[in-house]
Design goal:
The chain is of the alpha/beta class. It has five helices and five strands, in the order βαβααβααββ. Strands 2-1-3-4-5 form a five-stranded mixed beta sheet, covered by helices on one side. Bound molecules: zinc ion (ZN). Zinc ion binds next to α4.
Length: 126
């Protein structure tokens, strides 16, 4: 089971089905989801990482999650409102949260992607 952390933006839904977010494993057919305006940025900007961890603490054991996929997307309204709508910021946040999660949940793999909302192109962070 994979846990997908994504924005509420409806434009990304078709890519979830077509592009196969989940990297090497292909399309995410069966996954749990945490969706917010701004994806991970919602927790970061509102200083609510504990809320995020609280949800993961329930989802990971309950669904025997093996992987967490963090998804950001370009032209995100939440990032725009913060004046942080740049590729650099999207990627930086993905890297930061990936590091935090790898430390907190060493038994779970973590992948991070930036989805181009226009083209569907996916950029994976290291
Ligand atoms: Zn968004």
């Amino acid at each position: 089971m994979t846990i997908l952390v994504r924005c509420s933006d409806p434009r990304i839904q078709k890519y979830l089905e077509e592009v196969g977010i989940g990297g090497k494993t292909g399309a995410l057919k069966d996954h749990a989801v945490i969706a917010n305006t701004g994806s991970i940025k919602y927790f970061m900007a509102k200083n609510q990482m504990e809320d995020f961890y609280g949800q993961l603490d329930i989802l990971i054991p309950h669904f025997h999650a093996e992987k967490i996929v963090l998804l950001n997307h370009t032209d995100c309204g939440f990032y725009k409102k913060l004046g942080q709508d740049t590729e650099e910021n999207y990627l930086k946040d993905l890297r930061e949260v990936k590091e935090l999660l790898l430390q907190k949940y060493p038994e779970v793999a973590v992948e991070g992607y930036l989805l181009d909302t226009e083209t569907g192109n996916l950029k994976e962070i290291e």
